[in-house]
């Protein structure tokens, strides 16, 4: 899936009814790396609860399970 369209649209759709959405930025792709980086840094933070890396997400998950 291309983050600039499919992932972003799905995230917007899920956010509207109140779901807490996280996008893992280094597990997505874009039409170009530059477009994906712009989305991750500028657009996604305005529509989802969290934008993080795989390692950041895994670290939080391992702390919650302890």
Automatic annotation (TrEMBL):
- Tell me the ranges covered by the Isochorismatase-like domain, including all copies: 2-43
Pfam families for the chain? Isochorismatase
Q: What InterPro entries does UniProt report for this protein, alphabetically?
A: Isochorismatase-like_dom, Isochorismatase-like_sf
Family assignment from sequence similarity: Belongs to the isochorismatase family.
Query: Which named protein is this?
Result: Isochorismatase-like domain-containing protein
Taxonomic lineage from the root: Eukaryota, Fungi, Dikarya, Ascomycota, Pezizomycotina
